[in-house]
Amino acid sequence: MRRAKSWRDYRQVLLRLLEDREQRYQKLAELQEKITVGIESLDRGEGMDGETMLTQLKVEIERREARQDPS
Question: What average pLDDT does this structure show over 49-68?
């Protein structure tokens, strides 16, 4: 980060920091909501066993890697 030399520079830096913090808080709130939804789903018995989940994750990772592979 560059060094502020005037009040205007300080203000710009502070505004940028506040915007960054707001974005982090928003992402955290979204993550907390996803976790809550997942826990509620598990409480209703709608979960899947770990082996099935890992298999699906592996397939998804391989699919994404294949999409990124230029050859």
Answer: 92
Per-residue confidence at 25, pLDDT binned at 50, 70, 90?
Answer: very high
CA of residue 27 relative to chain centroid, distance: 6
- Determine which helix (DSSP H) or strand (DSSP E) holds 63, and give its type and residue range: helix 50-68
User: Cβ contacts of residue 13 below 8 Å, gap of 6+?
Assistant: 1, 4
H/E stretch holding 4 reads none
Cα–Cα distance, 11 to 42 (Å, whole number): 46
pTM over 0.90: no
In DSSP notation, 17-54 reads HHHHHHHHHHHHHHHHHHHHHHHHHHHTT----HHHHH
